[in-house]
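User: Study the shape:
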Amino acid sequence: MADDVLSQGEIDALLSALSSGEMDADELRADETENKKIRVYDFKRALRFSKDQIRGLTRIHENFARLLTSFFSGHLRSYVSIQVASVDQVPYEEFIRSVPSKTILNVFSADPLEGRLLFEVNPNIAYAILDRMLGGSGSSLNKVETLTEIETKIMSRTFGSAMESLEEAWESMVSIDVEMEDFEVNPQFLQIVSPNETVIVISLNTVIGESSGMMNICIPHILLEPIISKLSVHYWMENQAHKGNEEDYHLLQENLSKVSVDVKTNLGETSVTIEDFLHLQTDDVIKLDQSIHKPLKLYVDEEPKFYVHPGKKNNHLAVQVFSDMEEENDG
């Protein structure tokens, strides 16, 4: 059946033809069945992520690309541009075949999530970074097969630090602790998941100085499975709104906590005549309306709020709050 949207006139004409008998509904269904498009489904390329979830991952790693750009710009003191080129779901075997036979491969864990993720850096980019770290101009030189121990150590530390930006980018979705587990140059020696396992591959188009190349993040489905529901844009928007409300609440609470109010407690009240008041003498007793067996009231800005008991603390007169007047009245 065609995907074109019918106009109101075409819909009216179709209904008129059906009601007058010019067109048979059964024939229409038969034509629709014959014209149905058949889509080939490859079970080796199982699509486990929806388009909405792919968009969520794209948004997260666009933020990661910006953070990574800032990180390398500060460390290398050179022009750096990193942008998300694509986000795809492919079998792990297909991803391994797509990277160079000799490349820079960093394997990371992402506690508390199960599984490992892979950060692949094209040798042109890796050596441009290494050259700048060692004081050079940032020229690329592909000698990945003859990496020295010092070069390996510098690269692994640099990319390990760079992945802290991934923790920050994922913070809106889940808190993770990224730790480097392995450093390798031959992709055939790495088997983080089975060959047919679906993985998300985020490709980053990278320019450092005059060198350019790709960096790829490979995330297995098994690692994302516990948080897959959080990848949707709808969840993210709700989470951001809740986070904004929570921040506003804490800010309001913090500001209110600094406001000063007047607090006082009356021991009791009574009324006397002017004549009695004028004739008061030492040791005279004035009877108050407050029984010693009943609690006193604590006033906050002239409003009664709490029931208290009088006493002393550090030789100072004090009161002890034991109940809220509003709660007691509600009860």
